[in-house]
Specification:
By secondary structure, this protein is α/β, with parallel strands linked by helices. The protein has a single domain (2-245), classed as 3-Layer(aba) Sandwich (Rossmann fold). 43% of the residues lie in helices and 19% in strands. It is built from twelve helices and eight strands. It has helices at residues 15-26, 42-48, 57-62, 67-70, 91-96, 104-110, 129-137, 155-168, 187-200, 213-221, 225-228, 233-245; strands at 2-6, 32-37, 72-74, 79-82, 118-123, 140-145, 174-183, 204-210. Strand 6, helix 8 and strand 7 form a beta-alpha-beta unit. Helix 1 (15-26) packs across helix 2 (42-48), helix 1 crosses helix 12 and helix 6 packs parallel to helix 7 (129-137). It is globular and about 50 Å long.
Length: 246
């Protein structure tokens, strides 16, 4: 099971949009599991609406409930999902006092690894112990970034965290790539994009996810872009991302 974490400690960079739509694109031809590891449960809501599940990531981590009992099937997205819950917001404090706290998610995912080809982990905009768990569990990280000057400021911290994970937790983590999101053709945007391209070089994906109202509409309809509006520029961009990344 190839495991990819979608991560950036800056909010508003379309992490969840990327997680659910990339998972849906891959779900056409692969067995895909999406783990919503964000206490805000944005991916869970985007896929299932306001449904409250009896079991979630919280039960996985802190009550040792097997992932197989928590997984929910999404027919619309053609994927399986481990949903999140607001209770996970207390996870940082609880994890701090637990033995082997950085590897809890890794151990649970290992038990269902043969059942899937790909696992996508959506994370919160922080670099706390929940994010560390996701990074340790992953093979690769995909970093969404908006094309503005402020987005580059926090990337060094994220890179340092990933290096620390690799060096101190024996993680196999590598950078899959950096994805430009919320792209609009403007002079100031293209100027920032030049800086991003210079900084990341070949790790910058060729495809860019455009700013598109259809993306928000698809979220509200609890559908992936490929089903909500397959002919939109955003849907085409996520199809291209799936090909480029996998």
């Amino acid at each position: 099971m190839r495991t990819v974490v979608i991560v950036n400690q800056k909010g508003g960079v379309a992490k969840t949009t990327t997680a659910v739509n990339l998972a849906a694109e891959l779900g056409v031809t692969r067995r895909v599991l999406l783990v919503d590891f964000d206490p805000q449960r944005s991916a869970t809501s985007a896929i299932f609406g306001n449904v409250d599940f009896d079991l979630s990531c919280y039960d996985l981590l802190f009550d040792n409930v097997p992932a197989s009992k928590i997984i929910q099937k999404s027919e619309a997205f053609d994927i399986d999902v481990i949903p999140s819950d607001i209770m996970l917001s207390s996870g940082e404090l609880r994890l701090a006092s637990m033995m082997g706290r950085e590897r809890l998610l890794t151990r649970h995912l290992a038990k269902i690894k043969p059942n899937y080809d790909v696992c996508i982990i959506d994370t919160s905009p922080t670099l706390g112990l929940l994010a560390i768990n996701a990074l340790v569990a992953a093979d690769e990280a995909l970093i969404p970034i908006c094309p503005d000057y402020f987005s580059l400021k926090g990337i060094k911290l994220l890179e340092d965290t990933m290096t620390s994970v690799r060096q101190n937790l024996a993680a196999r983590l590598s950078l899959l790539g950096v994805l430009v999101t919320r792209y609009r053709k403007r002079v100031i945007t293209d100027s920032a994009l030049d800086l991003i391209s210079e900084y990341f070089g070949p790790k910058l994906f060729n495809v860019k996810i455009p700013e598109n109202i259809a993306i928000e509409e698809a979220h509200n309809a609890h559908m992936p872009m490929r089903k909500y509006n397959a002919n939109s520029k955003a849907a085409a961009a996520y199809r291209e991302l799936a090909k480029e990344a996998f």
